């Protein structure tokens, strides 16, 4: 996480921490969720959210707990985006990206490549040498 993210999360944390005690209570979480347009959150629901994230068991979220929540949300979003991208390349429903499906998608994106080049691209991240990319192999490729 970079300094910009930390500063942004701190700003949001302080916005939620209405009484400025350095902790977000269930009622503060409930009020802020409603204020930012997240709909009604019952007090019991906000207590349950905090209980899941509360690292010291005091029933409140401290900054570190809150940052952990924000990072987890960001990771979930990245995973959804990665799954969506995988689905675009894996067109035939096989659960794998083949050189042929890679070639087809690259052509649709205006980046046509010959089949042998697509095979080479696949082989660079094909860890089990089956000639295809699984979702896990695709994730490795996307993070390199």
Automatic annotation (TrEMBL):
It comes from the Eukaryota. Keywords: Calcium, Metal-binding, Repeat. PROSITE patterns: EF_HAND_1, EF_HAND_2. The keyword Repeat applies. The keyword Repeat applies. InterPro entries: EF-hand-dom_pair, EF_Hand_1_Ca_BS, EF_hand_dom, EF_hand_pair_protein_CML-like. GO terms for molecular function: calcium ion binding. Residues 4-39, 41-76, 77-112, 113-144 form the EF-hand domain. This is Calcium-binding protein CML37-like.
């Amino acid at each position: 996480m970079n300094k910009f993210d930390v500063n942004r999360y701190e700003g949001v944390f302080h916005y939620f921490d209405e009484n400025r005690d350095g902790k977000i209570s269930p009622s503060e979480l409930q009020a802020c969720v409603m204020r930012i347009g997240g709909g009604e959150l019952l007090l019991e629901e906000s207590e349950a959210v905090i209980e899941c994230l509360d690292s010291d068991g005091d029933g409140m979220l401290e900054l570190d707990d809150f940052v952990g929540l924000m990072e987890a949300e960001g990771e979930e979003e990245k995973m959804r985006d990665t799954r969506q991208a995988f689905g675009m390349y894996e067109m035939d429903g096989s659960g794998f990206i083949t050189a042929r499906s890679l070639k087809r998608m690259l052509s649709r994106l205006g980046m046509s490549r010959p089949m042998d080049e697509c095979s080479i691209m696949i082989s660079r991240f094909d860890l089990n040498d089956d000639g295809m990319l699984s979702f896990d192999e695709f994730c490795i490729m996307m993070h390199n």
